[in-house]
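#struct-pred
JK: can someone run the complex with 3-amino-D-alanine? inputs below
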Amino acid sequence: MKKVIVAGATGLVGSTIISILEERNFPISEIKFLASKNSVGEKIKFKGKEIEIRELKASEFDGFDLAFFALDGSLSKIFAEEAKKRGVRVVDNSSYFRMKDGTPLIVPEVNGKIIKDDDYIISNPNCSTIQCIAPLYQLEKKYGLERVVFSTYQSVSGSGKEALLDLENGTSEVYPYPIKDNILPHIDTFLENGYTKEEMKMIEETRKILGISDLKVTATTVRVPVSYGHCVSINVELKKPFDLGEVRELFDGKLGMVLKDSPKDNIYPQPLYARGRDEIFVGRIRRDFSRENSLNLFVVSDNIRKGAALNAVQIGELLVD
Ligand code: 2RA
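RT: done, structure tokens with the ligand placed:
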């Protein structure tokens, strides 16, 4: 049994971590919820008990074992180190530590085994990246990956609670333009190289998790007017010829994936049906006739669950093991 903290307990990811800890009966002897001053005194129900939110402060980590962080990178930077000093292992949702050497970046089904006993800060990958890793890992193992092209259709919940209000009301508080009835080829900030940070996260994190530092990857990340569920179209060039039936087998029921791929019956992955679910839905699997050894697939998952909170709790389960 562990003494567990959820820091950033009031946000979309933090509150989903709390429900998933409860659902999966995580072995907890004591739980504490931390947030900013504004939320102090509010209560969150956990296993029938009302627990008061406390202010995020370094001393709150004393005597605890494990902390789930759903904080901004700037806060993660400070408080993950404070937690580590106090012997608390941290599963961090922010991008701050992800690409640092020596910080494991984990999708449990794929590279959970690389976590060492003395790793105190473990990073949870970016949501749109997480859902692409299981299918790519399966393809890499069997055929080898030559090149990957990601095109995303990302839901508004990826930007937090306020963005959901923008979608509902047609306002533009979070994004530079309204997202209602619109599509923005812009997620996170633009960089000197013309890509957005989100695109570079997909490129760099995919290489790190799969352990292929020179993998050819490119990405275009796009915000769409959907509340929950990220979609990614993946075009993959493999090193060897493949059989479509075999590819389906690699995905079907493996590593948290569910095949939704019967186009003649209008069966394909969709955000509406991925919402609130733990699985990664894969479909529209077809040969790319324009290139040798290439295929297309469409991958959908609940960005707040497998894309963030569920993956974090699964990492926590590995740490408890
Ligand atoms: C997004 N990937 O969807 C981000 C959330 N971390 O905006």
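RT: quick notes.
The chain has a mean pLDDT of 98.
Residues 126-128, 154, 158-159, 187, 198, 303 surround 3-amino-D-alanine (CB under 6 Å).
JK: thanks, will look after standup
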